[in-house]
Design goal:
This protein has 9 helices and 10 strands. The protein has 260 residues and is of the alpha/beta class. It has a single domain, classed as Spore Coat Polysaccharide Biosynthesis Protein SpsA, Chain A, CATH 3.90.550.10. 30% of the residues lie in helices and 25% in strands. Helix 1 crosses helix 5 (119-131) and helix 2 (34-42) runs parallel beside helix 3. The termini are far apart.
Length: 260
């Protein structure tokens, strides 16, 4: 027996730790949340990151909070802060920084949500392993924990296994899904006239080009519920929990589709 033999996944693990991942955080008036969001990225176990924050015409204290929280670039992390005005919408904000996406993998993180510390490490390792069998795989996503404005856990939010046909009528892939950057960039720029169902618009475009997804059935990020969620999910969930309706939620029943 070869005593120098490596574990089967050692090369993949080494490859994963060296891969850069772009994290794009579009923000509009989430100054009260974005420091926690940024810190959840800065505390990732995977540190080879490009952190790209784009403020979309905020009128609150967002710019000051971002400036105070986002560190300068370092050997392991590149940080970018882009400001656009006036407020033009989330997809416009993403289009504005598409030239900054130079890493092989990327994700979009809403400015009020949070990643668990190993989110990027877990999704990237899953991506690299699964793409050996399916080179069309471009999206890896997970379940989440629903949190309130104080970051206290309310319930669990579930996604579902990938199904291209279901995606035509259901929005079940969450925003911070890890993506193959080449696949993501191939469907940009996005249609800025779309103001609701924005993530559904993105995933539909990618899947229509033949890309596939993979679901990790574990809660690997925190999805914040509040009155200003664009999909309206916060108001609905908080109303349900206030009336005593507790338990996990299948998120496709709450998220707006592009066609809604």
């Amino acid at each position: 027996m070869n005593s120098n033999a490596k574990p089967v996944n050692s090369d993949l693990h080494s490859q994963a730790t060296q891969q850069r991942v772009s994290v794009i955080i579009p923000n509009h008036n989430y100054g009260r949340y974005i420091a926690e969001t940024l810190n959840s990225v800065l505390q990732q176990t995977h540190q080879a990151l490009d952190i790209i924050v784009v403020d979309d015409g905020s009128t609150d204290d967002s710019v000051a909070v971002i400036t105070d929280t986002l560190p300068p670039s370092s050997a392991s992390r590149r940080t970018v802060f882009h400001r656009q005005s006036p407020n033009s919408g989330k997809l416009s904000a993403l289009n504005a920084v598409m030239h900054e996406i130079t890493s092989p993998y990327m994700l979009t993180l809403d400015a009020d949500d949070q990643l668990t510390p190993d989110y990027i490490e877990r999704t990237l390792q899953t991506m690299l392993t699964a793409r050996q069998a399916d080179p069309h795989l471009a999206i890896v996503y997970s379940d989440c924990l629903l949190i309130d404005e104080h970051s206290d856990v309310i319930d669990r939010g579930r996604s579902t296994d990938f199904d291209a046909d279901k995606l035509k009528t259901m929005s079940y892939i969450p925003e911070p899904a890890l993506c193959l950057s080449a696949a993501y960039l191939s469907v940009m720029p996005f249609d800025t006239s779309i103001k609701v169902g924005t993530k559904h618009h993105k995933w539909l475009r990618m899947v229509d080009q033949g890309w596939t997804g993979l679901h990790i059935p574990e809660p690997l990020f925190h999805y914040r519920m509040h009155d200003n969620n664009l999909s309206g999910i916060g108001k609905r969930v908080l109303s349900e929990t206030d009336s005593g309706q507790r338990g996990e939620r299948i998120l496709s029943g709450y998220w707006i589709t592009t066609h809604s």
